Structure formats: structure tokens, C-alpha cells
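Students often ask why inverse folding is considered easier than folding. One informal answer: many sequences map to the same fold, so there is more than one right answer. In these notes we will look at a single instance of the problem. The structure comes first.
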């Protein structure tokens, strides 16, 4: 992508065309297997209503004046009724942080209170969308700062800023699969959608059977709330939540960062969501100029290659501001960011998901590159902006360190 008026991460910063080898790992979630039945006798044996009995019940309800609905016929109506509430940026909670700010530093440190409150808030913020995820711990063995800055807000939700449309649920298409989707299916709508952007050969999904990403740099299309497939569908990875423990730790030279827990994380594993606020491109430019001056920015342009029209680069519509939470940079990253679509039909508003691109050792920092790929920085001049506070010397310590984090 071309030069920006502010230091903003582009989609090229988050991808790699190298496909690491598949590494098996057992999933922490276990589901009862879906049992397909072909006869009324088998249904009765499982304690269920037979097809003929179900029809009699439906007819009785309709005769009594009740409306009978079915998932196949009314799925969009049902899905819309139970759709997630759109989160607006103006509603980001701050009461707890205001209360903490009103206390003295000594009071917040007493009994490790501020750390315990932050960890509890993280659990509360993510309890609904990933209830089985390992806990997130806050650790500082560098100085006496108890936690990240109090405006830090850990969440997997995407918040919509002014001028950003709500999720497009009207055009959201789901599959008609019964039980788990078959990656080799010729009729599954989700397989067809994935193959439009990535040809996975005999398997149409971009995940392998262990839930590991088979290729980076391509959009991920998971099954969504309009799909009739089961919870244990192999195309539901991100929505099943994080499987690995992580910690938010203070570093000597780079502020706060995200680190792996005590378990080794295999390559191509899902780590989390680069959550934040959807902004219009114009608002992103305004904020980027301010952030550059204070030396802190987590603006990510949604300018992925597949959004271009027939190979022609088009203007960026939106970006994501993760000012309240972000990962550190490395010139030798172990993570990449991939665009993902679940309950969103608007291609201009992907969910940014973080996957490892190589094996991550226990307690290793999780980083991706703000700079982008080596061949993506040609002809870009940053000399006019080098006086801004954000253009500090890179502290990643990698053998191939470029010395700077931005183009």
C-alpha cells in the first residue's frame, strides 16, 4: 500500500505467504457427536419425536392460532432476533477506570487491588464470547507500575465509531449443512465462499482438522449465525475462543506487551482478536496525526488485497483503532493478522484475527510486524515525519532488526 500521512499499520504488516507445517493439538472444547438418523425407529431409540409426530404437533399449534416457524424457512428472522448487539464506540465503559483513577496510588496498590480488578474485568469482558478461554494474567517484574494504563480496555468486541455502518446481517448467507460441515462438500455455501478466495484443494476450508490455519494472507470465512451446521463444525474456530493462556507483561524497553503462557503454542494457532474501534478513513487520519505526536498508535488500515476491484487498488474506507490495547512490534514476528468474516457480510469490515506463524515458546512475547513485508516498503519516504515521537528506534532485538517500526 502507498504512503500514509500518519504511522498506520496496513494489512501487509500482518501476513505471510509461507505455510508452516501442520501441527496437531487437541482442542479444549468437547461436543457430543452429532448423530444422523434416517428412520423414525432410530429417532424413537434416541428419545426424540418422530417426523410424523412433529408434523401433528405443528398442525395442532397452527390450528390453535400459533405461528409455526422453522430454521430452514425462517433462519434470517430468527438470527436477526438473536443477533449480537452492535457496540458503539461512544458506549465503551469507563466507570470502573474512573473509580480507580479517583483513588490514590497507594490505595490502588494495597493488596494488589488494581491488578486483581484488571484481571477480573478481563474475565468479565470475555465471559460471553469465550467462556472456556484460559485466564489472562497481568505481570510486572520491571518496575512499580501495577497495570497497563487505566484507559486500557481488554475486549474481543468491535466498537463502531461515527459514520461506520452496523454489521450487514441482511446479506449474510449461511449454509444448510446438517451436523458438522464437510470440507469436501460441493453444496456447502461456506465452502464455496472460502474457495472463491482460496483454493484449498480437496478441503474447502482454510483450517485443517485440528483447527490450525492452513495458509495466511487469505480471508477466512467461518460459518455464521445463519448457518444450520452444528457447534462442532470444523469451520468454527475463532468463535470458539482462545485455547492458549497468555499474559500481559511489562517489558524493559517496549512498555506493556502480550506474552505466551507456560505452554508452547504451535504454528498457525488462533491467539485472539485485534479488537478496537472501527473508524472511517478520514477520522483515522485525524487521530493518526495526534497519536504520532504522543508516540503511540495502533491504527490498522483495512486495505487487504482481496478488497481491490479487479486488481485495481481502491481507497481505504475504514481502519481499526486499537489504542486501548495492542501487541508490540517485532522485525522477526511470530504472529500475523488475518482478515476474518463471521457475522458480517460487509467485506470492507473484516474482523482482525491473530494467528501464530511459527512455534512460540513458553513465555515468549507475541509480536507482529508494523512495518510490513520487505518488498512492500519500496519508494516510501518517511523523512518528513521522522521528528514525530512515534518514530523511535525499534527495540525488538531481532537479528534482522531494521531499526525502525514504520515505513
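Output (designed amino acids):
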Amino acid at each position: 500500500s502507498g504512503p500514509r500521512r500518519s504511522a498506520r499499520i496496513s494489512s501487509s504488516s500482518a501476513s505471510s505467504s509461507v505455510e508452516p507445517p501442520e501441527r496437531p493439538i487437541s482442542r479444549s472444547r468437547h461436543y457430543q457427536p452429532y448423530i444422523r438418523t434416517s428412520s423414525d425407529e432410530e429417532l424413537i431409540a434416541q428419545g426424540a419425536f418422530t417426523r410424523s409426530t412433529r408434523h401433528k404437533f405443528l398442525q395442532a399449534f397452527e390450528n390453535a392460532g400459533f405461528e409455526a416457524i422453522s430454521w430452514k424457512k425462517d433462519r434470517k428472522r430468527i438470527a436477526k432476533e438473536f443477533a449480537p448487539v452492535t457496540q458503539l464506540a461512544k458506549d465503551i465503559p469507563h466507570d470502573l477506570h474512573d473509580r480507580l483513577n479517583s483513588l490514590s496510588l497507594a490505595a490502588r496498590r494495597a493488596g494488589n487491588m488494581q491488578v486483581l480488578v484488571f484481571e477480573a474485568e478481563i474475565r468479565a469482558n470475555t465471559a460471553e464470547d469465550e467462556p472456556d478461554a484460559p485466564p489472562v494474567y497481568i505481570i510486572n517484574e520491571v518496575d512499580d507500575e501495577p497495570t497497563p494504563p487505566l484507559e486500557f480496555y481488554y475486549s474481543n468486541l468491535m466498537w463502531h465509531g461515527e459514520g461506520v455502518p452496523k454489521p450487514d446481517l441482511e446479506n449474510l448467507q449461511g449454509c444448510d449443512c446438517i451436523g458438522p460441515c464437510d470440507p469436501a462438500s460441493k453444496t456447502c455455501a461456506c465452502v464455496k465462499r472460502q474457495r472463491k478466495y482460496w483454493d484449498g484443494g480437496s478441503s474447502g476450508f482454510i483450517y485443517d482438522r485440528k483447527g490450525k490455519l492452513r495458509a495466511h494472507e487469505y480471508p477466512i470465512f467461518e460459518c455464521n449465525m445463519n448457518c444450520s451446521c452444528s457447534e462442532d463444525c470444523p469451520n468454527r474456530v475463532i468463535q470458539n475462543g482462545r485455547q492458549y493462556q497468555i499474559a500481559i507483561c511489562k517489558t524493559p524497553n517496549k512498555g506493556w506487551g502480550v506474552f505466551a503462557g507456560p505452554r508452547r503454542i504451535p504454528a498457525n494457532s488462533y491467539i485472539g482478536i485485534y479488537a478496537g474501534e472501527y473508524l472511517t478513513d478520514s477520522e483515522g487520519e485525524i487521530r493518526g496525526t495526534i497519536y504520532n505526536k504522543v508516540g503511540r498508535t495502533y491504527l490498522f488500515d483495512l486495505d487487504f488485497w482481496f478488497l481491490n476491484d479487479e486488481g485495481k487498488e481502491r481507497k481505504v474506507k475504514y481502519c481499526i483503532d486499537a489504542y486501548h490495547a495492542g501487541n508490540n512490534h517485532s522485525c522477526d514476528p511470530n504472529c500475523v493478522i488475518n482478515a476474518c468474516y463471521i457475522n458480517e457480510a460487509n467485506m470492507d469490515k473484516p474482523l482482525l484475527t491473530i494467528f501464530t506463524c511459527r512455534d512460540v515458546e513458553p513465555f515468549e512475547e507475541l509480536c507482529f510486524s508494523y512495518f510490513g513485508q520487505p518488498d512492500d516498503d519500496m519508494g516510501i519516504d518517511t523523512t518528513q515525519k521522522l521528528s514525530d515521537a512515534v518514530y523511535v528506534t525499534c527495540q525488538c532485538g531481532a537479528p534482522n532488526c531494521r531499526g525502525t517500526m514504520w515505513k
